[in-house]
Design a protein that fits this description.
Strand content: 15-25%
CATH superfamily of the largest domain: DNA methylase specificity domains
Number of domains: 2
Strand order of the largest sheet: 2-4-3-9-5
Radius of gyration: 25 Å
């Protein structure tokens, strides 16, 4: 095979929004391989036709801005869509040479293997920005099976990828549903409004509806339900811990070193895992050892992602991560998590950004000062508070924990 360089398109025609052709960048490659279409760039200038990609083309990234080279050398397949896709510089297009019996989909999965990945990183150049080249990628040697075997391997792995994508979309639906329920119950107070008007809260069983008051506290300036109060979060958590401000050496196995790459918004993604050695464990957990039920969050660069540490995960915090340890005798971690990922809190968080000189966002300390609704009725027991968390929240967490739990009851009670 061969790898064709991309074209240096003129910067004056770059756009963040349509109209225009889709201009691929290294940011469109997922960690571990695959196409990311969530942050597309566009180009509204002249285009040489030989640098227009086709659906199904196999491409690789040859530049990475991260210290660890998170996506360097990883492949992606150009997806179908209505816009033209342009072959930008620092992205290589894989071309199967005439007379070579190679299946592009097989090569796609080959370029996602650990053996290939290790060789690309070992031969990369640069410190702040990592680079590879067509010659370094093409130097990788591998066993090429018959074309029928390649096609069979690609078919099986493609089926798994389709299933993974389906599960991802289901998780997104569940997350959207969970956030809508949370907003309805704890931000808009729809169950309280319904009961105050003499109606049964929509879509809610009588047992759960009985947990909500039927009137608002008229003396409260915030218009809270009677018996509820507004309080600073720092008054109701055991502690907030900052992670280390450095990166340890990698190990082949051992405890997980959580990084920003593992934070997907409201859960932990272990598709790409970095390990530390047992010898390094004590040093990197000196500030705090994460426990099941702790809430980890990002506070710099990528801001506002939260997740709950699941049972059985032995890990330490990475750079730009911090941890909230809830007061679990009063609050279920998922109530707090759902508060943090809800639109009102995220909007409040965005208003507290502290731009730094390098343009990144820094919100350290912001989380401990934000007011959240706390259910503080003395008659409200722990078990009853936990019942207020919708079943959707449990289901979302279980689906996002990659099978580490046998059931929700392992954590709830």
């Amino acid at each position: 095979m061969d790898i064709k360089h991309g074209f240096a398109f003129q910067g004056e025609f770059f756009r963040d929004d349509p109209p225009g052709d889709v201009l691929l960048t290294p940011g469109n490659f997922a960690i571990g391989g695959g196409f990311k279409g969530d942050k597309l760039k566009y180009y509204a200038g002249p285009v040489p036709e030989e640098y227009v990609l086709s659906v199904g083309d196999l491409i690789v990234t040859m530049t990475d801005l991260s210290k660890e080279g998170d996506t360097l050398g990883y492949p992606a397949i150009v997806p179908s869509g209505s816009d033209r896709v342009l072959h930008n510089q620092r992205i290589g297009k894989v071309v199967v040479l005439a007379g070579t019996r190679a299946e592009l989909r097989f090569l796609y999965y080959l370029l996602r293997t650990r053996e290939y990945r290790n060789e690309v990183l070992a031969s990369a150049t640069g410190t702040t920005v990592k680079h590879t080249s067509p010659s370094r990628i093409l130097a990788f040697r591998f066993a090429l099976p018959p074309i029928s075997t390649q096609e069979g391997i690609a078919d099986v792995l493609s089926a798994f990828d389709r299933k993974i994508e389906l599960n991802r979309r289901m998780n997104q639906t569940l997350e959207s549903t969970a956030r809508a329920i949370f907003r309805s119950w704890f931000v808009d107070f729809d169950p309280v409004i319904a009961k105050a008007e003499g109606r049964q809260p929509f879509g809610m069983s009588a047992d759960v509806a009985a947990l909500f008051p039927s009137e608002f506290d008229e003396s409260d300036p915030g218009g809270l339900p009677r018996g509820w109060t507004q309080a600073p979060l720092e008054k109701h958590v055991r502690a907030v811990y900052d992670g280390p401000h450095a990166t340890p050496p990698s190990a082949e196995s051992g405890p997980i070193f959580l990084g920003i790459r593992n934070m997907t918004g409201s859960k932990i993604d272990l598709a790409e895992v970095r390990h530390i050695s047992e010898e390094q464990w004590a040093r990197w957990t000196k500030r705090v050892t994460p426990e099941a039920g702790d809430i980890v969050f990002t506070y710099e660069a990528t801001v506002g992602a939260f997740a709950v540490i699941p049972p059985g995960m032995r890990c330490c915090l990475g750079r730009r991560l911090a941890l909230i340890r809830p007061s679990r005798e009063r609050y279920h971690p998922h109530f707090l998590l759902s508060t943090f990922v809800s639109p009102p809190f995220q909007e409040l968080l965005a208003s507290r950004f502290k731009p730094r000189l390098d343009g990144a966002a820094d919100t350290t300390g912001c989380y401990t000062r934000q007011p959240v609704l706390a259910l503080l009725k003395s008659s409200f027991t722990l078990r009853r508070e936990r019942r207020l968390i919708p079943r959707w929240f449990y289901l979302r967490f279980i689906l996002g924990s990659r099978g580490r739990w046998q059931s929700a009851n392992e954590f709830l009670y």
